Amino acid sequence: MWIDFFRAKETKECKLLYNYIAEEQPVILCPPVIQEILQGIKSDSDYEEIKESILSFDILNIDPVEAAIGSADLHRLLRKRGVTIKKSNDCLIAFFGIYFNVPLLHRDYEFELIAKFLPLKIKH
User: Fold this and answer.
1) Do residues 112 and 91 both lie within one domain?
2) CA dihedral angle for residue 51, residue 56, residue 62, residue 67, rounded to 10 degrees
């Protein structure tokens, strides 16, 4: 979703994010989202500009071992319920959202699956 935002795509999620930023409402990131944003940038100059920009937002932080265990627990619980999440980063992002009780704005169906079984809040 963030890459779409930086490419100025006209999606519902990008418009909502733009409005949050324009109205100076809280935009909160977590380290795995920062990683996904930055690894998707091809241009070195864009990388530096975007990195500086996203680091100005609030960033959730947790002990990495606690996050790894929480994410693994989340993945295992879902698998026991018949749901397999393909990207481990999605479990980690969902863990941050659940742990800090913050809604997630996304364009990834797997988060909808997670939210069906766990208390992940989705921003629509």
Assistant:
1) yes
2) -40
Question: Domains in the chain: how many in total?
Answer: 2
CA angle, 89 then 93 then 97, to 5°: 165
CA distances from 34 to 15, 20, 79, 96, 107 (A): 20, 18, 26, 13, 16
Does position 7 have pLDDT exceeding 90, yes or no? no
Place of tokens 């990495």: 64
Identify the bridge partners of residue 104 per DSSP, sorted by sequence position: 122
Check residue 63 and give left, alpha or beta (phi > 0: left; psi -120 to 50: alpha). beta
Print the domain residue range for 98.
64-117
User: Is residue 55 a contact partner of residue 43, using CB atoms and an 8 Å limit?
Assistant: no
User: pLDDT tens digit string along 19-75?
Assistant: 999 999 999 999 999 999 999 899 998 999 999 999 999 999 999 999 999 999 999
Decide if 123 is inside a domain. Answer: no
